[in-house]
């Protein structure tokens, strides 16, 4: 017998509900047996079902929290000796704050688009801090130091993890 969707493929498989011929590419495993895509009623998990409004709320939350954290980061940057000791903790806090704000704005939705938006919020905070420091007359060596780059990596890791 021929597959209903792919007529060039020979198969012995049938849907356990409607008895339509299906090939291994059309097959969907369900708890009650092999089914065709129509009978399996394949849907995305609601956590990963993203509407345009959800993405806009996520982008807004990332922009607001990234701007606020970037300004706070700039404010405390002259105290660079604290970065050596508290750099990892600051990175964790920055990533958590931005990731959590995006997560709350999207009603705990997740997925790669939301992760990219949270990552963009962290990069926005770091970029804003860097621009403000360069505007204050600090050298690029101070602005792009190893501690702030390590802090950025930790913040990105935690922010993406919060909206997974």
Spell out the key features of this protein.
mainly alpha, 2 domains, 164 residues, 60% helix, two-stranded antiparallel sheet
What does this protein look like?
By secondary structure, this protein is mainly alpha-helical. The chain has two domains: 1-42, no CATH class; 47-162, no CATH class. It has six helices and two strands, in the order ββαααααα. It has helices at residues 37-40, 52-76, 81-105, 112-135, 140-143, 146-162; strands at residues 28-30, 33-35. The mean pLDDT is 87.
Helical content (DSSP H or I, runs of 4+) = 55-70%
Assembly status: single chain
Structural class: mainly alpha
User: How are helices and strands ordered from N to C?
Assistant: EEHHHHHH
**β-strand amount:** under 5%
Largest beta sheet: strand ordering: 1-2
Spans of at least 5 consecutive residues whose pLDDT stays below 50 are none
Concise structural overview:
Helices cover 60% and strands 4% of the residues.
Write the layout of secondary structure elements.
Elements: E1 28-30, E2 33-35, H1 37-40, H2 52-76, H3 81-105, H4 112-135, H5 140-143, H6 146-162
Antiparallel strand pairs: 1-2
